[in-house]
Q: What sequence folds into this?
């Protein structure tokens, strides 16, 4: 295999991955809000959760994007951990749709022939002035690049029949019985980790199988390994997240590892079941002894490709049908494995709706960032509560406790602003729609204003501290006036949060309530200054 051939293979793989990302991005931008609404509405029990995860992942072709949404919803309290486990199960079934698309359109129908003409259509759509058509254009171009990449991968992989020595070497790895199954399972796991995409690993496995590089049973072992590899990726992303993010990722791992264990224990019977199903379609049994793929256009090749896709679907479906009855026990297990931090207060002030790591779904992530901003506003209002208490506190020790809390809230607001801004930077770096871009600019401004409120609370504590150092005190009338002012600011906070929530839901009509609050605060301030 020459250098040019290797570079062509790597380039084709890159085109395949880029096409998949572009297709997923276009779909998310075209229907992100609807998918997000569906996820929050259809997860009232694990069975509905499975259907929701299956449906969303089948549409956006990215189980990672679905998992990102699930984790954020768990953090937000919009989904319980139990409901999230159901959605993750469904996402695992939904991701098997990719294998069927690749098997049918990429190998049997060879849609790459139509990819170039379709690319022209995608270009026309992407140049439209309407955002929705631009997103559809991006989807079409991504779809075309995916199958063009697959076509180039098939062409760049050499035929091992022309090099018998290499073929014998590859076959030697698959002639060690159950040991070979474990070797190819490990290979599938590592390949998925390297490529960061189970869909790409699946495509490579299908190509190797169709070219006769590996027998059917070893390809099946690789698929099982891919299911473990994709969970490691999720755990790496969640390692810097909060407790709930880690628990959701661990539940994904438990699901797939359990599945791989029973699939290995019943490996031969499981493959036999796949073979019986494929035979029912009038094709040869790919799990039978002596079965050989002798060419990419042969009937045997079709049977092997469909058999591998069937195994992938059956594995996740059977696994779901078994584990869906034990969701409560899975929840208890992940809570036991991932302990809550001892300092619950620190955990409470961590980001609740977004987590660190790769942003798999920029359009949906922007919505989660707005949820986080509303959470930020509520935390800021809590800081005002301590400022109100500090104004009238006369006990020096209790005042120092309140002052320390106001200083801490200022630090918290700085940290939250920084983390939300960093997250928005990551979202902005992705491919986002014009509407989302405008929304992100607005969010930058809002978090800056919220952070300044934290500064104000700390500034009030400094002023009160100076009062105490100089042994001064406020009169009863002054304290009464300050309390009135603090109550008005408290009302303004409530109005601000109410407006943010309405804006997030898209139901806000005007902000006269905010203007009215400001006018009342200004009037009281002027009156107190004159007095």
A:
């Amino acid at each position: 295999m020459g250098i040019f051939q290797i570079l062509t293979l790597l380039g084709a793989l890159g085109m395949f991955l880029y096409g998949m990302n572009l297709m997923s991005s276009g779909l998310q931008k075209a229907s992100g809000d609807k998918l997000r609404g569906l996820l929050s509405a259809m997860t009232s029990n694990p069975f509905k959760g499975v259907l929701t995860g299956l449906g969303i992942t089948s549409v956006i072709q990215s189980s990672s994007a679905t998992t990102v949404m699930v984790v954020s919803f768990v953090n937000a309290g919009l989904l319980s951990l139990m409901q999230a486990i159901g959605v993750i199960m469904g996402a695992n079934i939904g991701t098997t749709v990719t294998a069927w698309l690749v098997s049918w359109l990429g190998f049997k129908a060879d849609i790459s022939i139509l990819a170039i003409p379709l690319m022209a259509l995608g270009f026309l759509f992407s140049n439209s002035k309407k955002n929705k058509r631009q997103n559809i254009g991006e989807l079409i171009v991504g779809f075309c690049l995916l199958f063009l990449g697959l076509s180039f991968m098939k062409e760049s992989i050499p035929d091992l029949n022309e090099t018998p020595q290499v073929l014998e070497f590859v076959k030697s790895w698959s002639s060690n019985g159950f040991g070979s199954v474990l070797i190819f399972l490990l290979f599938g796991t590592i390949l998925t980790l390297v490529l960061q995409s189970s869909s790409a690993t699946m495509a490579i496995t299908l190509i190797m199988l169709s070219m006769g590089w590996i027998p059917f049973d070893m390809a099946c072992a690789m698929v099982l390994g891919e299911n473990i590899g994709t969970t490691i990726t999720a755990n790496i992303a969640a390692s810097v997240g909060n407790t709930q993010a880690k628990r959701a990722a661990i539940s994904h791992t438990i699901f797939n590892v359990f599945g791989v264990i029973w699939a290995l224990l019943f490996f031969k019977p499981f493959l036999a079941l796949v073979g019986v199903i494929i035979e029912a379609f009038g094709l040869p049994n790919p799990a039978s002894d002596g079965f050989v793929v002798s060419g990419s256009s042969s009937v045997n090749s079709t049977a092997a490709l469909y058999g591998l896709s069937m195994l992938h679907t059956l594995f996740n479906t059977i696994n779901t049908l078994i584990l869906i009855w034990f969701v409560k026990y899975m929840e208890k297990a992940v809570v036991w494995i991932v302990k809550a931090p001892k300092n619950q207060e620190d955990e409470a002030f961590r980001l609740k709706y977004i987590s660190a790591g790769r942003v798999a779904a920029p359009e949906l992530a922007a919505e989660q960032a707005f949820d986080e901003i509303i959470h930020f506003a509520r935390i800021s209002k809590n800081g005002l509560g301590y400022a109100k208490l500090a104004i009238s506190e006369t006990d020096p020790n209790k005042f120092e406790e309140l002052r320390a809390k106001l200083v801490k809230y200022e630090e918290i607001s700085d940290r939250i602003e920084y983390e939300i801004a960093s997250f928005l930077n990551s979202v902005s770096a992705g491919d986002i729609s014009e509407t989302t871009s405008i929304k992100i600019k607005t969010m930058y401004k809002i978090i800056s204003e919220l952070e300044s409120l934290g500064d104000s609370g700390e500034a009030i504590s400094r002023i009160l501290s100076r009062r105490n150092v100089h042994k001064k005190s406020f009169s009863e009338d002054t304290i009464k006036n300050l309390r009135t002012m603090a109550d008005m600011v408290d009302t303004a906070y409530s109005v601000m949060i109410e407006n943010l929530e309405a804006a997030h839901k898209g139901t806000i009509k005007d902000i006269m309530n905010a203007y009215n609050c400001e006018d009342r605060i200004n009037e009281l301030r002027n009156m107190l200054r004159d007095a």
The chain has two domains: 3-337, 361-530. The longest helix spans residues 3-41.
